[in-house]
Amino acid sequence: MRRFFSQNSLSLAFGGLFLLTLVGQAVSGVAAFNDQRLADGLEQISLLRYVTSSAFGVDVMENWQSEYLQFFLYILGTVWLIQLGSSESKKPGETGIETDKEQKVGRYATKDSPAWASAGGWRTSLFSRSLGLVMGTLFLLTWTASAISGWAAFNDEQLMSLEDPVTLLGYLAQGDFWSRTLQNWQSEMLAVGSMVIFSVYLRQRGSPESKPVGTPHAATGMTG
Fold first, then answer.
1. What's the pTM value of the predicted model, to 2 decimals?
2. Which of 185, 80, 206, 68 lies closest to 134 in space, CA to CA?
3. Which of 53, 65, 192, 194 could bridge 143 with an S-S bond, Cβ 3.0-4.6 Å?
4. Is 143 helix (H, G, I), strand (E, B) or coil?
5. What are phi and psi of 55, to 5 degrees?
6. Dihedral angle, C-alpha 146, 182, 21, 48, nearest 10 °
7. What is the pLDDT of residue 37?
8. Blockwise average pLDDT, block size 10, the chain, 224 residues
9. What are all long-range contacts of 206-213, with beta carbons under 8 Å and residues at least 24 apart?
10. Is 213 strand, coil or helix?
11. According to the model, what pLDDT value does residue 208 have?
12. Which helix (H) or strand (E) holds 212?
């Protein structure tokens, strides 16, 4: 058991932090939500009712879909795009999907390669793109969930204001939806771009996200 925790400590640590922050968001969110309802002369709601509401759902889904968009674009972008000196980039001249030999697929697979890497045909083709496909699919699913929960939350506000609700397509044309969506997207693009540039000139000793401390700034694709 100790070995399991040691060998999976990174994913377990971030999984634990994810759950803690999600619970924290729910607790603080219901408090803020009830404060607003109290100011509007409405009854307060329980935590359970809040976490199953569209108000909580839209906040969560907006964050999730922007994160999956970030990784989806980054995974695809780093296939073809280069940043000289960044540990997050391939070396100049190494763009593209690379050869079967470099990727160890087909007849170049080793005995401990994943089964689908050596299977050939559609299975190897699918497995070769599985990370991008999963991230792209998760982005589309969470974006759809964000749109639907945002639509429900928007119509709740419309009804409380004695205004007519709108259709889903009508909501997607609203500035409210795109303002909230693009607000999340731009923050993710800023974070990725900053990491790429900072990794050229800055170091974090011992981290695989950083070049070794003494490595020249122009060295590309090296990790510590």
1. 0.86
2. 68
3. 65
4. helix
5. -65, -45
6. -30
7. 86
8. 88 94 94 88 90 90 92 92 88 88 88 89 92 95 93 85 87 86 90 89 87 87 71
9. 209/87, 209/88, 210/87, 211/87
10. coil
11. 84
12. none
3-class secondary-structure state, position 30: helix
* pLDDT value of residue 93: 86
Rounded distance between C-alpha atoms, residue 185 and residue 216, angstroms? 32
Residue for token pair 């923050």? 187
Find, among 115, 113, 138, 116, the residue nearest to 127 by Cα. 116
Please tell me what DSSP assigns to residue 90: P
Q: Estimate the share of the chain in helix, then strand, then coil, as percent rounded to the nearest 5.
A: 70, 0, 30
Rounded to whole angstroms, the Cα distance separating 105 from 88 reads 23
Tokens 């989806």, residue? 72
Domain ranges of the chain: 1-52, 59-88+131-224
**By C-alpha distance, which of 72, 70, 71, 77 is closest to 95?**
77
Query: What CA–CA distance (Å, rounded) separates 187 from 67?
Result: 10
pLDDT at 224: 63
Category of 163 on φ-ψ map: left (φ > 0), alpha (ψ -120 to 50) or beta: beta
Tokens, residue 204: 């974090």
CA distance 223 to 211: 4
Output the CA angle 135-137-92, nearest 5 degrees.
Answer: 40
CA dist list (Å): 41 to 32, 49, 54:
14, 18, 20
> What's the pLDDT at 160?
77
